[in-house]
Amino acid sequence: MFAPLSIPAPSPDWQVFNLGQWLRDIGLGFFPFDLNIHAYAICILLGIVVATALTSARLKRRGADPGVVLDIAIWAVPFGIVGGRIFHVLTHPDDYFYPGADLARTLYIWEGGMAIFGALILGALGAYLGCRQAGLRFWSFADALAPGLLLAQAFGRFGNYFNQELFGLPTDLPWGLEISSTNPAFPIGLAEGTLFHPTFLYEIIWNVAGAALLILIDRRLRVQWGKLIGLYFIWYGIGRSVFETIRIDPSEIFLGVRTNVWAAFAAILVGLVIIIVQTRRHPGIEPSPYLPGRGWSPNVAGVDSGERYSDSDDDGNGAAEDAGTPASKPATSGVGAKA
C-alpha cells in the first residue's frame, strides 16, 4: 500500500485523451476516426503559450512591438523541439537503438523525452534567425524570454508526472511519488508501493521560484544586454545539477557523471561567461531593442513612458554608437510602422 501522504500515481487514462471517441460518445457519429491528445503534449503546448505571452508583455515594456514575439517563435519553437528530441535520444541510446528496435520511435515525442539542453541549443539558433529577420536584438529577446522559459519548463515537468517518468530515488518522505509497479521504468527488485522522489515537482518549484526572482531582479535593476538570460543559465544549471543526481532513469555516463549533470555545469559556465563578457562590452543601457536601422514606433497615445526602458544616450553609455544614430532620433518616422 502507498503511504497516506504520498503523491498519487496518475491514472494511465490521464496520459491520453481520445477526442474522437469523446465526440462520438456525445452523438457526433460523423467523426469517424480516433484523435488522441497526449497530456505530455498539452503540458508542453501550455508552456509555450505562457512563455510567449509573458515574453510579449516584457518586450512591449522594453519598447518593442509585442507581436514580434510570434515572428521569432515560429523559428525558435520548431528548432527547440527538434533539438530537445535529438539530445534526449543521444543521451538515452539504449531506449531507441537495439536489435529489432522501431527507429520511428525516435520521433514519438508524445511518449515523453525532451531534453532541455538540446532545446536550448537549437532553440537559440532558431531565435537568432527569427530576431535577424524581425530586426530585433537577440540579447533583448533573450532577456525578455528568460522568466517565461523557466515557466515553460515548469509546465513541461507536469508532462513527466502524467507519463510517470524521470522520477528519483526511493524515499520514505511524506511527499514521495507513487509509481505503478507495471510501469516499465519501475526499478526491478523493489517492492510494490515503493515511493520515489518527485523530481518533477522539485524542478517545478525551482523553476517557478527562478522565474519570480528573474522578474524581480529585472524590475529593480533593469538587466539588459543578455545578462538576465545569463542569470537564467546559472539558476537553472544549479538546480538541474542537483535534481539530476537523484534521478534513476538510465542515462549516458561520462567520467562517472551523468551527461545531463555535465550539461548543467556547462549551463552555469555559459551564464557566467555571458554576464562577464556582456558587462564589459556594454556598460551602458540598450538604446533600443531593435537593431540599427530597424525599428518600431508605437502609437504614442498607447505608451506609458514610465513602463518603458529609456533609450536616451546618457554620457558614457555608448548608446549612440550601438544604435548607429543619435539616440534622440527615432528609428523610424512613421507611426506604427516596421522598417
Automatic annotation (TrEMBL):
Catalyzes the transfer of the diacylglyceryl group from phosphatidylglycerol to the sulfhydryl group of the N-terminal cysteine of a prolipoprotein, the first step in the formation of mature lipoproteins. Its EC number is 2.5.1.145. It comes from the Bacteria. This is Phosphatidylglycerol--prolipoprotein diacylglyceryl transferase. Belongs to the Lgt family. PROSITE patterns: LGT. The keyword Cytoplasm does not apply. The keyword Transmembrane applies.
